Amino acid sequence: MAVKAAGRAASRTNFKPPGTAELIQLLTPEGERAEHPDYPLDVSTEEIKSLYRDLVLVRRIDFEAIALQRQGELGIWASLLGQEAAQIGSGRALSPRDMAFPTYREHAVAWCRGLDPTKLLELYRGVSHGGWDPKEHNFHLYTIVIGSHVLHATGYAMGIQRDGAVGEDGEAVIAYFGDGATSQGDVNEAFIWASVNNAPIVFFCQNNQWAISEPLERQSRVPLYLRAQGFGFPGVRVDGNDVLACLAVTSKALQAAREGQGPTLIEAFTYRMGAHTTTDDPTRYRLSAELESWKLKDPIERVKQYLIRSGLADESFFTAVGAEADEVGLRVRKACLEMPDPAPLSMFDNVYAEPTALLIAERAQLAAYIDSFADEEAVR
Amino acid sequence: MSSLTLSKALNEGLRKAMENDPKVLIMGEDVGKLGGVFRVTDGLQKDFGEDRVVDTPLAESGIVGTAIGLALRGYRPVCEIQFDGFVFPAFDQITTQLAKMRYRSLGKVSLPVVIRIPFGGGIGAVEHHSESPEALFAHTAGLRVVACGDPADAYAMIQQSISCDDPVLFFEPKRRYWDKTEVDLVGGVAAAAALDKARILASGTDVTVLCYGPMVRTCAEAAVAASADGRSVEVIDLRSIAPLDTEAIFASVRKTGRCVVVHEAPVTGGLGAEIAALVTQECFYQLEAPVLRVGGYSTPYPPSRIEEYYLPDLDRVLDAVDRAFTY
């Protein structure tokens, strides 16, 4: 038995995924503009500068949130560090009428949709379970159970079809999930449903290489984008640290979905630069050399290099963005510190459309119980 | 004797079970190199190898479904579900397959699978990380459902569960992972009560308080506080939720005449309701008061900033004990 076990372990170590993965890239890590025949991108200087601004601001919000967690102001935080380009590129490709279904790490997509970042802090502070109106920004609530929302996104896309909102001026859905989620039954079922219904949806998988401590090879033996083929729709791998490529690839896939050409799987090849969440310790399971090599592919630095080299932005631009980031950081911090705890009795709200007799009774019971301590305090 | 945290005691129990039986496997998300998010399996993959401590794909239905297959092939898998709220993708495999295979095969197939689930709140976590879903499984015939309350018992119970030929849902009180007690690593299992037996934590004569998992410590503290008020509280750690040790429960209630059941899970449709019905039926003439329940409200688990109002604590247990004397 021991021999067989060793054999299996060895084959695992020697594992090489079949297939050559083409990586769509429009901006190299060194900041050189590249072209791709299938993804021409006509983007103005102003747009690139505004993408850069978004990247810097969301990273700053993320840093602030990590600091707030370390200071005990947030219960936990799931950092997006390293994944800014994948999220800003895809988020900016959405039209206001498109609908986005995030996991719990899509802080930059939330930013693109116009959701106030402090709403995200509410969740991580333990003040609410989200609480924003998905319809307000066409940005669904964060989903923590891995992969569940990918089916919701698919069903929403089927609703778009039934509303006749596919075709010219059509709408589309984007579902975000990670490499780990591709193992879940729900995600694979979503692929099937979207495929057989030709639903207007883009599956946007941020492959950040790690599902907490487990590397991609624990989830898949083929590059993830190749899986789409087996389900009957196109899959494409994009440099997830290249905001221009993410914008171009997602724009094209969304447009195809809106026009009735069905789903696309986009694998944004990126890297989780930080821990899974603030409670995680990645030094237990991954090598620092890997992190160092990905630092050279930083999603923000390459845009900056491009802007400088091309003479499209000068120092005053970068200083101004830095100053704005400081401002946003301060605003987020202040909002977090000033955030009131929910009223204890609010836990009974919104369980049903109308409160049941049981909930009304329990609410009164807790109110009386809390009051009994107030009396005690008064007596003392 | 060694002074161990509950997390470490489980780790030692798992290690012992793996040493004693080469068929014992551990499988789950992040249980290998990371050692589990609560470090319960820390170091086991290093010592027993990747084939016995398996970092699985991120798929709970897959973890339990393949564990069933491994058990059919003669292995004794111990699955870890990372958090209580993540067990539901595996709910189908657990309730329709794992629970019923013995019955369906007229006793020819045993599935000695253990499913470890950190459960309960009080750690300031986000949604789906603080739930108490044990009643859903206790409602399903064919599953044994147990919860450990302290490190010494955790060390024994995990080994008892692994050697049990029935499937066992093993609930671990996650906010007690860092509690420490003395654990007897040599004679601990032999000295422990059988897996389906309750244990009397504190003897008393006035009221019986039944609890399990994270509420064991809370109720033990409540008994001490109540004794200051001259109330003699008998605290029973149920340990096994399915089946219930009804003999121990009835014997205690017949003696005290009062019964309070405490759990974090919502009281609506919960274990407390089942126990209250049984006690009322069997101890009707000895009861001085109705059986009272202390537990979560009939709401989803609330945001963590107000979880202290949702969770039963020392004061709420004492409040119920007091109420038991008002009839």
Characterization of this structure:
The complex is a heterodimer of chains A (380) and B (327). By secondary structure, chain A is of the alpha/beta class. Helix content of chain A is 47%, strand content 8%. Chain A has 2 domains: 16-337, Rossmann fold; 344-379. Chain A has helices spanning 2-13, 45-70, 84-93, 107-113, 117-125, 134-137, 148-162, 185-197, 227-231, 243-258, 288-295, 301-309, 315-337, 357-379, and strands spanning 99-101, 173-178, 201-207, 210-211, 214-215, 235-239, 264-269. A 5-stranded parallel beta sheet of chain A has the order 1-2-3-7-6, with helices on both faces. In chain A, helix 10 (243-258) links the parallel strand 6 and strand 7. The radius of gyration of chain A is 23 Å and the shape is globular. In chain A, 45% of the residues are buried. Chain B is an alpha/beta fold. Chain B is 36% helix and 20% strand. The chains are: A alpha/beta (380), B alpha/beta (327). At the A-B interface, helix 1, helix 5 and helix 14 of A face helix 12 of B.
- Estimate the helix proportion of chain B, in percent: 25-40%
- The name of the CATH topology of the largest domain in chain A is Rossmann fold
Give the domain tally of chain B.
Answer: 2
Strand residues, percent of chain A: 5-15%
* Largest Cβ-defined interface: A-B, 49 and 43 residues
Spatial sequence of strands, sheet with the most strands of chain A: 1-2-3-7-6
Strands ordered across the widest β-sheet of chain B:
3-2-4-5-7-6-12
| Estimated helix fraction of chain A | 40-55%
CATH architecture of the largest domain in chain B: 3-Layer(aba) Sandwich
Average predicted local confidence, pLDDT of chain A: 94
CATH class of the largest domain in chain A: Alpha Beta
CATH class of the largest domain in chain B: Alpha Beta
CATH topology category name of the largest domain in chain B: Rossmann fold
- Give the N-to-C terminal Cα separation of chain A: 71 Å
Number of strands of chain A: 7
Shape of chain A: globular
Say which CATH homologous superfamily of the largest domain in chain B is assigned: Thiamin diphosphate (ThDP)-binding fold, Pyr/PP domains
Low-confidence stretches of chain A: 1-15
Order of helices and strands of chain B: EHEHEHEHHEHEHEEHEEHEEHEHEHH
User: How would you sum up the major sheet of chain A?
Assistant: 5 strands, parallel
